[in-house]
Each structure stands twice: as structure tokens, then as C-alpha cells.
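Renewal narrative, Specific Aim 1. Our central claim is that a sequence can be written position by position from structural information alone. The example that follows is taken directly from our test logs and has not been curated for this report. It begins with the C-alpha cells describing the chain, in the order in which they were read.
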């Protein structure tokens, strides 16, 4: 774990899982732009992770890295402790880490290991990491709970509610997040913690690189209201606004960041 020196006042400390690259990096940058010191977690500390840490520091904020696999629930106490100890109490958790299916095909043939892996990271890992961190946050002073100053944000996907044949295990593993987010919103309100779900559409990252052509054709065909690829920054900006408390009377909601893909039409 590394931390840089910086004495600038901040609205708090944010912890972003899967923050090494892609959407997680954009979220980390947006949080830094809003004045958060940022601790990122990921399974690997590589050049990409270093670039993200540098980017946070270039924005004038402190940055630290905590290596760990969120699917390893037995390791969560260490993970949370290291993140907490980096710069002090965490005021914002972003559950961004997630994995796509490596198996794309008929749901009648999905291997047990594939569904287990996806549920382990996308659902079970996020649930228990949140549980562990929420208990620590609950032990801190919160001010007026009707004006939450802290937040927990889940990055789900449109596939939490929209079925895509060929990645059924991914859809299933993400489908519990809206309920998880709603339940945590109710449970944590008394501690001044707002809980939000952000639902990305099709975002240009490493995760979508292998299906770029398929999605690119669909995007170009004008299949939805704002026919362009989503960028990681589109998600980052939304999370930044939520974490900064700019929507102070909202909790338990789902924010679509998808160019209108979710709109039902006749
Ligand atoms: P990505 O693959 O570029 O980044 C995901 C990051 O999470 C990686 O750095 C990876 O190492 C990390 N990670 C994976 N498993 C982990 C684990 N067990 N513990 C800790 N870190 C782990 O993917 P992207 O596109 O940035 O996705 C971020 C989130 O957004 C994911 O939850 C994904 O499901 C969600 N999402 C992405 C969409 C897209 O079109 N790219 C659309 C909808 C949702």
C-alpha cells in the first residue's frame, strides 16, 4: 500500500473496488475532482494501477492501493482495515469490481464454475465487503442522518434487469444488486449513509473489447436514444455527483447511465 503526502482538506475518503482501470479508474478520477482522497482496490497492482494512482495525485488528492480479491470474503477484514488506515475513516464506498462471463452461450450449458465465479465476485463479494465496511462506518459520527454525508454506491448493469441470452450467468449474478442496494439503503439510513445503484449501459472498456464489433454495429444502427458508446467517464461523473452529495434527498434509487437503452418503446 502506498500513500502520497497532501495536506489539502477533502470531503472525505473514498474506497473504489476494481479501481485499477476502466470504469473504476474514471470513478476514482471523478471522486478526486470532487475533493476525495481515494483508496483503490484491485486484484493486481500493475502499470495500469500505477497510472490510476498518479492520476488521482495529479488532481491534488491522496491515493493508496489495497491489493485483494473481493471474492475472498475471509480476506475482507484485512482489505477494509488497510483501506481505512490509509487516510482515516472512509465516507464513500464504490462497489465497482466485477467480472463478465468467460462462457458466452446457451444457458442450458453454463458450467457450475462460471456461475459460481460470477456470483462470488459480482454479488457475494460486494455484499460482504459492504457489510464489513458499513459496520465500521456505522461506528463513526454521522451528523444529521436526514441529510446524509456519506454514501455507498453499487455499479450494477442494465443486465441486472434486462435479459441477454448468451450471458445469462452474468445477468443472474448482477440481478441481486438492485435489491442489495435497496436493502442497504433502508438499513443504513439511520447512520447518514445514502445508498445508490448506478446502472451502466454499453461502456467502452477492456470488458467490452472482445464484443466490440457486435456492439459497435448495434450502436451505429441507432438502436437506442443516444446512439453512441458510453465512456467510462460517463459513469465516473454520475458516481462523483452522488458521492459529493449533490442529490441530497435521494437514496435507494437506480441511476441509468446508458444513453436510454432501458427505455421501453411500443
Ligand atoms: P474492467 O474489466 O475494465 O475493470 C474491472 C476491474 O475490476 C479490473 O481492474 C479488474 O481487475 C477488477 N476486478 C475484477 N475482479 C475483481 C476482484 N475479484 N476483486 C477486485 N478487483 C477485481 O471492467 P469495466 O468495464 O471497467 O467494469 C467495471 C464494472 O462496471 C463491473 O462491475 C462491470 O460489471 C460493470 N459494467 C460494465 C459495463 C461495460 O460495458 N463495460 C456495462 C455495465 C456494467
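The sequence written for that structure reads:
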Amino acid at each position: 500500500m502506498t500513500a502520497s503526502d497532501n495536506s489539502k482538506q477533502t470531503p472525505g475518503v473514498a474506497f473504489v473496488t476494481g479501481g485499477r482501470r476502466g470504469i473504476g479508474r474514471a470513478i476514482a478520477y471523478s471522486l478526486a475532482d470532487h475533493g476525495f482522497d481515494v483508496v483503490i482496490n484491485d486484484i493486481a497492482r500493475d502499470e495500469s494501477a500505477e497510472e490510476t494512482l498518479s492520476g488521482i495525485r495529479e488532481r491534488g488528492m491522496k491515493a493508496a492501493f489495497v491489493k485483494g480479491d473481493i471474492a475472498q470474503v475471509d480476506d475482507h477484514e484485512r482489505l477494509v482495515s488497510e483501506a481505512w488506515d490509509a487516510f482515516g475513516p472512509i465516507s464513500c464506498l464504490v462497489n465497482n469490481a466485477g467480472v463478465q462471463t468467460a462462457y458466452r452461450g446457451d444457458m442450458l450449458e453454463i458450467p457450475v464454475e462460471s456461475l459460481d465465479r460470477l456470483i462470488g465476485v459480482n454479488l457475494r463479494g460486494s455484499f460482504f465487503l459492504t457489510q464489513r465496511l458499513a459496520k465500521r462506518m456505522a461506528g463513526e459520527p454521522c451528523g444529521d442522518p436526514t441529510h446524509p454525508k456519506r454514501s455507498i454506491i453499487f455499479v450494477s448493469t442494465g443486465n441486472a434487469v434486462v435479459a441477454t441470452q448468451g450471458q445469462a450467468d452474468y445477468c443472474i449474478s448482477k440481478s441481486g444488486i438492485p435489491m442489495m442496494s435497496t436493502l442497504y439503503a433502508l438499513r443504513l439510513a439511520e447512520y447518514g449513509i445514502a445508498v445508490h445503484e448506478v446502472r451502466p449501459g454499453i461502456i467502452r472498456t477492456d470488458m467490452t473489447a472482445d464484443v466490440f464489433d457486435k456492439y459497435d454495429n448495434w450502436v451505429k444502427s441507432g438502436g437506442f436514444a443516444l446512439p453512441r458508446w458510453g465512456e467510462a467517464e460517463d459513469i465516473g461523473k454520475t458516481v462523483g455527483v452522488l458521492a459529493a452529495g449533490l442529490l441530497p434527498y435521494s437514496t435507494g434509487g437506480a441511476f441509468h447511465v446508458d444513453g436510454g437503452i432501458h427505455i421501453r418503446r411500443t
